[in-house]
Amino acid sequence: MPDSLEDTSTISLRICLEGHANALALNKDNTQIAVAGRSLLKVYSIDNDGFTESCNMRGGKNQNLSYSSNDVAWSTLDSNLLATAATNGVVSVWDLSKFGRQKQLLVYNEHERTAHTVTFHSSEPNILISGSQDGTIKCFDIRSDKSVNTYFSNSESVRDVKFSPHTQNIFSAVSENGTVQLWDMRKWDKSMVQFTAHYGPVYTCDWHPTRNWLATGSRDKQIKVWNMDGRPGLEHTIHTIAGVGRVKWRPERTYHIASCALVVDYSVHVWDIRRPYIPFASFNEHTNVTTGIAWQGSDSHCLLSTSKDSTIYKHAFKDATRPALKANAQGAGLGRFGDISFANKIKEYAPKASGVSNTKSSSFIRRKANVAGSVQFHLDHSKMYKFALNDSFSGYPLSESEAKPRQEHESFIGCARELIINGKKLSELCEHNAEVSKKYGKHNASTLWNFIKLFYGSNHFEPPFEHRSSFSNQKNPMNSRRATQVASDWPQQRNDLGQDLNGNTPETANEISVANADDDPLGGSGVEHPPTSSVILSETHIIHEITFDNFELLRNGFIYVGPTECAKALAFPALHHDVQAARPQLDLKASDHEKSPPPHVPTVLKVSHVPSIPMWEPHKFVGDALMLMNDVGDVQTALIVLISLGEARKLLPIEDTLVEHWFHTYVDQLHRYELWNEACEVINRSWLRSVQQLNQHSTAMHLNCGECGRPMGGKVGWYCDKCKSMQSAKCCVCGLIVRGVYAWCQGCSHGGHIEHLQKYFAKHSKCPKCGHLCAYS
């Protein structure tokens, strides 16, 4: 049935005000949906016009961390059985037919760290498995209160497990080290198949319903489809714009798969794996990252999703946007060395049978593609052109003191090598980085570094930090506190000083006070106030509310705003004012008309009323500037500034998820240019755990035995359990056991002392033991 004929419509529901769902699951009849999160565990009935809450498992008291869920699964055979994987490692089984706390039927507390995923067997109603951060997979039988099997994945974390719909006892497991494993439930000691699928952590997997294909999604922004018949082979690769969080094959569509991202991208995309660069359809209703997706049974026209925006959506496929219909037929890409590739569509024409001519006047018939409906698409042909950047190109005229590189990649590499992120004071660091940015033509970045130096270079930030967006957010308390502080500080300043702010002596000030006694709202009670209608902020108030490092304009404890120096240095937005003389204008006698006015009459900032003044917030300005740098493609400057700020970064209103995305993007760019040391330094300076673990993934190298060729997985490093030999520990050149640095060939698994191999391969090209053509460099 064509998508456009569906009578379903998109519906949504806000499910939780305190938190969001991390996962969702459908029952076997596809009439109910379970959503689970750290503060949420509910079941909703799916209606034609919305969702109706039918059960809340977190409604009672005395709840613990076992209710805080990362994943939820519904039994494929029993609609009353649910399973959840909790953040404290607990795997719980729920029976919806029971009441109250009895709904939590079983609690398995066997994982040592967070449980990431849980799933039921497709044909055995009592079997479920779970994967954890501790690197183990547990198999549970709900007729027992303990696990029946434990599978060790030899990785730091298992992120997803799925039972194969094609083979009863087989399940797949994906790990953070980028590997995929296939296990036989009956053989717990060793996996059947293990291969590296991605360069980054793999977060999700899903089996194709009709073909023996396994789809995997990773943080490397790719979805890969593997043919699991025999030796695993890569069939298709889909390129996304962000790390992949979930994938789910579309029913009744062989080549369609849905996905959602971990960060940045809030949409749910449906891909045709034959066209890997642009989604077939997209659902853009969510306003935050999507955390779970599921197709409503065999209905390929209805997709359910939940998000960090605390909503669940039932998407109708007819309401999806079609990006391919708006896509440009041309494309361009910028290479890492400044070269540009351009591709355009080839217009194919078929000549008539009457004859062939190469002139423009001859008749040609355009070859039309047989496209049946909107479900299919036409695989067209294109041409590719490559343009290299001319070495003589200079972007714009430069002064003699500037040395802008001719190519863009040189600017990135130069800044990556010369920018400093630690080891100096912030002011010195900003000054150095500003010069480096200017040297490589990044003038906006240079200005930003100078700005950071001005506002953060001379101040000391100590926790706890408190972020204030603006004065406009603080209504009545702010105004009352400001008035109280000014009133309390003013008499003290007048009494302690021999001269007031306007240059008057105490006697002159008293005369002015008497002259203005009639205007005193307190009826001349003797309490002295600041000049009428003047806005005077105390130094204590400014230090508490704003971060300035230039207090030269403070006079006698108050910031006094006049038309000359202060007005140029500090700008107060939305302040409608007129500048008048502070001294009251007394009646002049006729004898005084010929006298010249006193020079340099001090002035104050006069306002007709005192509104809630929105003060300029430098922290928000810096945060917006960093996000702008990222938006224009300069994530390098945005992240280096954030690292350089140290603890002061906590003052900036930037979410950790966005910062994490910046780290991954910049590290990927550094790896692209083979700047390994710079990437490692950035990772080491990170304060986010997920980034700190980047250089700890895949650090173990598994060797093969040089005699039998089998992996050496025994407890003793160089001992092979298969052939009962330790020959691999010996150097193939000298025959002695290697102590120290060991080099080996991945082709034949023979190796030895690196010095001996260097000397040997300087004259030979084949392995000294087996004759294999080893490649040593």
If you average the pLDDT, what whole number results?
Answer: 75
Distance between the first and last residues' Cα: 60 Å
How large is the count of helical segments? 13
Shape: globular
Strand content: 25-35%
Structural class call reads alpha+beta
Model regions low in confidence, pLDDT < 50 over at least 5 residues:
1-6, 350-374, 393-406, 461-585
Characterize the biggest β-sheet.
Answer: 4 strands, antiparallel
Number of strands: 40
**Using only CA atoms, what is the Rg?**
35 Å
Helix content: 10-25%
* Strand order in the sheet with the most strands: 1-28-27-26
Task: Give me the secondary-structure topology.
Blueprint: E1 11-14, E2 21-26, E3 32-37, E4 40-46, E5 51-56, E6 69-74, E7 81-86, E8 91-95, E9 104-108, E10 115-120, E11 127-132, E12 136-141, E13 147-152, E14 158-163, E15 170-175, E16 179-184, E17 193-196, E18 202-207, E19 213-218, E20 222-227, E21 233-239, E22 244-249, E23 256-261, E24 268-272, E25 281-283, E26 290-295, E27 302-307, E28 311-316, E29 331-334, E30 340-345, E31 349-351, E32 364-366, E33 382-387, H1 408-418, H2 426-439, H3 443-456, H4 476-496, H5 506-515, E34 537-538, H6 539-545, E35 554-555, E36 558-559, H7 565-569, E37 577-581, E38 603-607, H8 618-631, H9 635-644, H10 656-672, H11 676-684, H12 689-692, E39 742-744, E40 751-753, H13 754-761
Antiparallel strand pairs: 1-28, 2-3, 3-4, 4-5, 6-7, 7-8, 8-9, 10-11, 11-12, 12-13, 14-15, 15-16, 16-17, 18-19, 19-20, 20-21, 22-23, 23-24, 24-25, 26-27, 27-28, 29-30, 30-33, 31-32, 34-36, 35-36, 37-38, 39-40
Helix pairs in contact: 2-3, 3-8, 8-9, 9-10, 10-11
